[in-house]
Automatic annotation (TrEMBL):
Residues in Spermatogenesis-associated protein 20-like TRX domain copies: 25-179
Region (Disordered): 1-22
Basic residues composition-biased segments: 1-11
Superkingdom, natural source: Bacteria
Gene3D superfamilies in alphabetical order: 1.50.10.10, Glutaredoxin (3.40.30.10)
CDD domains to which the protein is assigned, alphabetical: SSP411
PANTHER family assigned: SPERMATOGENESIS-ASSOCIATED PROTEIN 20
Full protein name: Thioredoxin domain-containing protein
Length: 685
């Protein structure tokens, strides 16, 4: 990394220092709203392509690679400061080929160059700013730069490229070698996947919990969605009071804090403080889908009225604010009217103006709005630390404030439809439908699944994203196949629609054919073997803001193995077992970065649990109870004898609906009553 530290920033060069770009800005036809935000920049941005790299080689200039996403606050800041500047554009257009990438549309590129940025600087983030050789090797990386610093950096990189090319080639070669070594995969020989390993992983995660404010680690605090789902499953298996307390504490703190939109529902991406008061205001589909699943599960596990209310509000937020037709868009910006959070914050005076003095003063107390404020300029983010006794007044005041807020400038919306995140939404809507008794959520999930399969499957292969009904060129990655397959399998269990099962099987077969490591059973690549070949083929097993592709495919395979016929069941079951075992070192040593792995392992050590109910699925209290009582990760189907794989040879008993509870391939005797079913599952009725 010596070149990274030896580049010296100098005053910017003359725009004539290098051969000028022959192309104008080419982002106007992009399928990414983020790229389109930059279509009017004077910088001659192009999309990533073989032609762009070839142009850099022809001109013998380095590549300026800028990676971000539409809801990113600091991406907007750098765009306004630098990319809208004619001074910056004159230098970049003369001395670089300028490539702009939406990290949500091309997560493979983002993964490669984020690894490089972290390796060089010790940290990452967006906007990501990388300088590459024409063949794509990075030699200098960073994140956000103020305009003056960016101009100095452009000058220094230009001088280094012109005068010290041998150092650039040497450094970029070393960095590429280090990145390839990092991508070599996990070592073998992990511990067996067992209840003891799950207990260890849960205890390890709890050691880092914030027992005062909820959550894990220090601020900024991100919602630990996958870990919370795993801990709920651990609680259902063990009954651990400590685990349950951690879930209750964190879910309550997030629900009552400013990270949760107290008026419209939905969660912001993270909290900048320790107590969940001040969020970074962007709202992402993936966060809200994952949190909807958690709060629905918490509601089924006795989380009470708060859990059910937040789950319902989050589902409504998805349907109202992120739906575009039948599918779901990606995000809402943090900014509105050029200022972060301006849509959401209030002063006491604004509350009185919207509500009148009496209700305004009452609302200030209920929502913790003070003269000092909790955000900027005496403004406060709404919190709901306790439910007032007058719930009717709260509902009326909240509706009035939401109407007043709708008159403000609203955040921009990234209308891009991402396959993986819609897959997460399908699963969450199905699980919320069970927890809340809302058939409309099943209908919404089904519409989304149908639309995705119609638009994003092109010539039998899945695509990553679309915009306004136009599917993009970016190939789907592992997480797209995995989370959509899981969503389809979850929806199949509620609808018995064999078309959904067939579609999930097709996705899993594609994943096994094109993403599984050919020489290491249980390990996976994030990009397909026939996708564009980058400097390295990304393969990140760690769970982050979303579950990793590998942990997601493990979940899908584990579920599918018990829903398909014997010709596939063995193959899927073996692949799932190999995958969880190959990644068991993460559960042993990095539990907080393996939340979804723990959730999958918890399901695996229970068999996974399967409940097949012989019944009329449209009118069976026993089936409804099975869905409500089943622990997270369980598989539940209902219908007539032989109507599905799990109901083969299983019929009603003496004319009564009958539930067959199985652990792996071992099944209990059928039960016909809800109390008996609850006893078989080891849960209260």
């Amino acid at each position: 990394m010596g070149l990274h530290t030896s580049i010296r920033r100098k005053p910017p060069p003359s725009p004539a220092a290098g051969p000028a770009s022959r192309v104008a800005n080419q982002l106007g036809e992009a399928t990414s709203p983020y790229l389109r935000q930059h279509a009017d920049n004077p910088v001659h941005w192009v999309q990533w392509s073989a032609e762009a790299l070839a142009e850099a080689a022809r001109r013998d200039v380095p590549i300026l690679l800028s990676i971000g996403y539409a809801a990113c606050h600091w991406c907007h800041v750098m765009a306004h400061e630098s990319f809208e500047s004619a001074e910056v554009a004159a230098i970049t257009n003369s001395n670089f080929v300028c490539i702009k990438v939406d990290r949500e549309e091309r997560p493979d590129l983002d993964a490669v160059y984020m690894n490089a940025t972290v390796a060089m600087t010790g940290q990452g983030g967006w906007p990501m700013t990388c300088f590459l050789t024409p063949d794509g090797r990075p030699f200098f990386c960073g994140t956000y730069y103020p305009k003056n610093s960016f101009l100095e950096l452009l000058s220094a990189v230009t001088d280094t490229w012109r005068d010290r090319r041998d150092e650039v080639e040497k450094a970029s070669g070393e960095i590429a070698g280090e990145l390839r070594a990092m991508a070599s995969g996990l070592p073998g020989g992990g511990p067996p996947v067992s209840a003891e390993l799950c207990d260890h992983a849960a205890a390890s995660a709890l050691a880092d919990q914030d027992t005062a404010a909820g959550g894990f680690g220090r601020p900024p605090k991100f919602p630990p969605s996958a870990l919370l789902e795993a801990l709920l499953r651990d609680y259902e298996r063990t009954g651990s009071a400590e685990v349950r307390a951690a879930v209750d504490r964190t879910c309550t703190a997030m629900a009552r804090g400013g990270i949760h939109d107290q008026l419209a529902g939905g969660f912001a991406r993270y909290s900048v403080d320790n107590t969940w008061v001040v969020p970074h205001f962007e709202k992402m589909l993936y966060d809200n889908a994952l949190l909807l699943r958690v709060y629905a599960h918490w509601a089924r596990c006795g989380g009470g009225e708060l859990a059910a209310r937040v789950a319902g509000q989050t589902a409504d937020f998805l349907l109202r604010d992120l739906a575009d037709g039948d599918m779901f868009t990606s995000s809402l910006d943090a900014d509105a009217d050029g200022r972060e959070g301006s849509t959401y914050v209030w002063t006491p005076q604004q509350l009185r103006a919207a509500l009148g003095d009496d209700d305004g003063d009452w609302a200030a107390k209920v929502f913790t709005v003070t003269a000092a404020g909790t955000f900027e300029d005496g403004e406060s983010v709404l919190q709901l630390r306790n439910d007032p006794s007058d719930t009717a007044r709260l509902a009326r005041v909240s509706a009035t404030l939401l109407a007043a807020r709708s008159e403000r400038v609203q955040p921009g919306r990234d209308d891009k439809v991402v396959t993986a995140w819609n897959g997460l939404a399908i699963t969450a809507l199905c699980e919320a439908a069970v927890a809340l008794g809302r058939a409309d959520l099943v209908a919404a999930a089904r519409r989304c699944a149908t639309a995705l399969l119609q638009l994003h499957l092109v010539d039998g292969r899945l695509r990553r994203a679309s915009l306004g009904g136009r599917v993009g060129d970016s190939a789907a990655i592992l997480e797209d196949h995995a989370t959509l397959a899981t969503g389809l399998l979850t929806l199949y269990q509620l609808t018995a629609d064999n078309g959904l099962l067939d579609a999930a099987v097709g996705l899993l077969d594609t994943a096994l054919a094109h993403f599984a490591h050919p020489d290491r059973p249980g390990q996976w690549f994030d990009s397909a073997d026939d996708a564009e070949q980058l400097m390295i083929r990304p393969a990140d097993p760690l769970d982050g803001a979303t579950p990793s592709g590998a942990s997601s495919i493990a979940e899908a395979l584990l579920t599918a193995a018990h829903l398909v016929g014997p010709e596939r069941a063995g193959r899927y079951g073996e692949a799932a077992a190999d995958t969880v075992l190959a990644h068991s070192p993460l559960l042993a040593r990095a539990a907080r970065s393996a939340g979804h792995w723990l959730a999958v392992a918890e399901a695996a050590v229970r068999g996974p649990l399967q409940i097949a109910v012989a019944c009329d699925p449209a009118a069976s209290p026993l089936l409804a109870a099975a869905r409500r009582l089943a622990p997270g990760g369980a598989i539940v189907v209902g219908g007539a004898v032989d109507s599905s794989e799990l109901l083969t040879g299983r019929d009603r008993v003496r004319g009564a609906d009958a539930a067959y509870v199985c652990h792996g391939r071992v099944c209990d005797l059928p039960v016909t009553g809800v109390p008996e079913l609850a006893a078989a599952l080891g849960v209260p009725v």
